[in-house]
Amino acid sequence: MELNIIAAVCKNGGIGLNGALPWNLKNDLLHFRNLTMFTNDPLKKNALIMGRKTYFAIPENKRPLSARINVILSRTINQSKISKDVILCSTMEEAINRFSQEDFKNLVENVWVIGGSSVYREAMDSPFCNRLYLTQIKADFECDAFFPPISKKFKIVKDINIKTGIQEENGIEYEFVVFEKERK
Ligand SMILES: NC(=O)c1ccc[n+]([C@@H]2O[C@H](COP(=O)([O-])OP(=O)(O)OC[C@H]3O[C@@H](n4cnc5c(N)ncnc54)[C@H](OP(=O)(O)O)[C@@H]3O)[C@@H](O)[C@H]2O)c1
Q: Is residue 184 scored above 80 in pLDDT?
């Protein structure tokens, strides 16, 4: 079992404002959709682990995110507050343990951590953490949720499936950067 992280982060480290994304970048959302949905094995799905606020930041008509197994971390809500198709876990460890079980291994190809702040931090510190797929937005935005500092254990790597160079949308420049965690 490996955890891969995906996030869009602006120049000042921000990821969100008032429970939403501070920017509107349709092609970056498409990049998120494509990466988190893609499986080599068409019979398998990917799983997405997210904090409670990230889940409710997704527009109501788009959640749970389609064709992926949605897992919410929360210590306060119960299953009646969310779709029955969503897996609710009260710790990251509980979520990781589920995907380490044999029956899930046969159904799930990749496990993606999709935010927010403390969930990213916990995933980066986890021994299961493999890669970090960042969209580095080259502008500042007002934010109230931030990406945690990236430790020196993460090194930039090339991924032939990821577009290189500066992308531009709505006058905002951004770049896809992939980091891999050193394993010792
Ligand atoms: N730019 C991006 O790529 C990106 C990605 C994701 C989110 N966002 C943005 O970030 C904001 C939301 O992120 P956030 O950092 O404020 O909140 P969040 O991490 O999504 O949610 C925080 C909540 O998740 C639960 N939680 C977190 N870690 C847990 C753990 N280990 N065990 C159990 N429960 C846990 C807790 O819920 P309870 O209080 O219910 O216990 C906690 O209050 C929104 O603005 C969203 O749009 C941006």
A: no
Residues with CB under 6 A from ligand 1: 7-8, 15-16, 19-21, 50-54, 57, 73-77, 90-92, 114-119, 122, 145
| 111-120 pLDDT, tens digit each | 999 999 999 9
Residues 98 and 55: their CA atoms lie apart, in Å, by 19
Average pLDDT over residues 121-138: 97
* pLDDT tops 90 at residue 183: no
Give the separation between CA 16 and CA 57, rounded to whole angstroms: 9
What are the pLDDT digits (tens) for 64-81? 999 999 999 999 999 988
pLDDT, residue 104, reads 87
What is the distance between the alpha carbons of residues 56 and 52, in angstroms, rounded to a whole number? 6
CB atoms within 10 A of CB 116: 21
By the 8 A CB rule, do 11 and 139 touch? yes
* 120 vs 101: CA distance, rounded Å: 23
- Tell me which residue has its CA closest to atom 6 in ligand 1: 115
**Contact yes or no for 124/151 (Cβ under 8 A):** yes
In the chain, beta strands by DSSP E: 3-9, 14-16, 45-51, 69-73, 87-89, 108-113, 129-137, 145-146, 154-157, 166-169, 172-181
Domains and CATH numbers, the chain: 3-181 (3.40.430.10)
